[in-house]
Amino acid sequence: MKKRKRALITGITGQDGSYLAEYLLKKNYEVYGLVRRTSLDPMMRIETVAHHPNVRLIYGNLRDSASIARALNESKPDEIYNLAAQSDVGISFKCPEETMEVNYFGLGRLLIEAMTIVPKAKIYHASTSEMFGDTRPPQNETSKFSPVSPYGVAKLMAYEDYVRGYRKKYGMFICSGILFNHESPRRGEHFVTRKITISLAKIKLGLQQCLILGNLNARRDWGFAGDYVRAMHMMLQQKKPGDYVIATGVSHSVRDFVEAAAAELDMTMSWSGKGTKEVGKDRSGNVIVKIDKKFYRPREVHDLRGDSSKARKELNWKPELSFTELVRMMTRADLEMIATRRRS
Ligand code: NAP
Ligand code: GDD
């Protein structure tokens, strides 16, 4: 009988980790997940995958080499997916050291341990479109990196020193996905898309008056997380390691996302005013969107739109869900979740 492949996922409690775990389980992998100690038990936080008999959770932390070594010894993975990160760009300005510790040194600790414990393992690392920073779209693998946040800087250092560096120096099989923004009903509630879908659903149900946002003009290339984890797996099935931009190729502004989510909820919107005085009103003239400077970042990435031709050609990857379908999926899920909570 063919031996089942083993995968270790760091960041399994996050959005991507949960979709990836489900995807690998369907492919008959044995899935291990590194989880850090938190006040709320991780078993409570990943309802979707935690109770599956093939997901084995191992306590550990990317800040702790001994725990990483133990996780590798226990799981002996064929494939490692390093998704763990301090992934909030806004917070990275407030907690730059934590961001550097996990997003840069964390990968270094993992690679150093993997090199001796599982030298043949194939490794995926989560890079990001935030590394492009100021560079104008469309961005691809050859575009200039010009990060503007501590998050982007830490991810770029990890990419240059460890992904490219260790691949070259030690011949390790390390791929990195330069993923553009991807969302889902499991997206963390502080990211702008989820904040919008939750707040508008609450406004629709009369549980909240107003959604307060920062920069409405920022543009992002938003795809569906379920589509993006397929690409991570595809990268590790290649003969040679590489770096791939994963994106839809279409961008929208934060304002567009608000309008699309409102339309899904049958809430027609109109905008008036400028800058921080801008407001969005519903058809009865109630102000349902306002701006607060506190949600602006010290430095902003204004415009991201990825060119994923390389992944489409070499991996045969393409996204399946459109922007409209993504907004519909997220809006409906939040409306249902909030209506259910209200009933119970
Ligand atoms: P997420 O939902 O914020 O999940 C982050 C995960 O990292 C969580 O499981 C978190 O655990 C874990 N983690 C944080 N610090 C850790 C530490 N010190 N040790 C071990 N685990 C730790 O992020 P995501 O959206 O799934 O993103 C996955 C990866 O892709 C991240 O590296 C992110 O930077 C990158 N990325 C994401 C996007 C996107 O649009 N989603 C785009 C490009 C790149 P807790 O549950 O305990 O907090
Ligand atoms: N979070 C947030 N909250 N963002 C807001 C708000 C708000 O109230 N108002 C406007 N925005 C703008 C931000 O300034 C940014 O330009 C845009 O909305 C998207 O913000 P986020 O959803 O927080 O995502 P991000 O693009 O900064 O970072 C995400 O994508 C990166 C890939 O490009 C994260 O998932 C990162 O981990 C990932 O690497």
Automatic annotation (TrEMBL):
It catalyses: GDP-alpha-D-mannose = GDP-4-dehydro-alpha-D-rhamnose + H2O. GO terms for biological process: 'de novo' GDP-L-fucose biosynthetic process. It comes from Candidatus Kaiserbacteria bacterium RIFCSPLOWO2_01_FULL_54_20. Residues 8-330 form the NAD(P)-binding domain. InterPro entries: GDP_Man_deHydtase (IPR006368), NAD(P)-bd_dom (IPR016040), NAD(P)-bd_dom_sf (IPR036291). The keyword NADP applies. GO terms for molecular function: GDP-mannose 4,6-dehydratase activity; NADP+ binding. Catalyzes the conversion of GDP-D-mannose to GDP-4-dehydro-6-deoxy-D-mannose. Its cofactor is NADP(+). This is GDP-mannose 4,6-dehydratase. CDD domains: GDP_MD_SDR_e. NADP(+) binds at residues 88-89. Belongs to the NAD(P)-dependent epimerase/dehydratase family. GDP-mannose 4,6-dehydratase subfamily. Its EC number is 4.2.1.47.
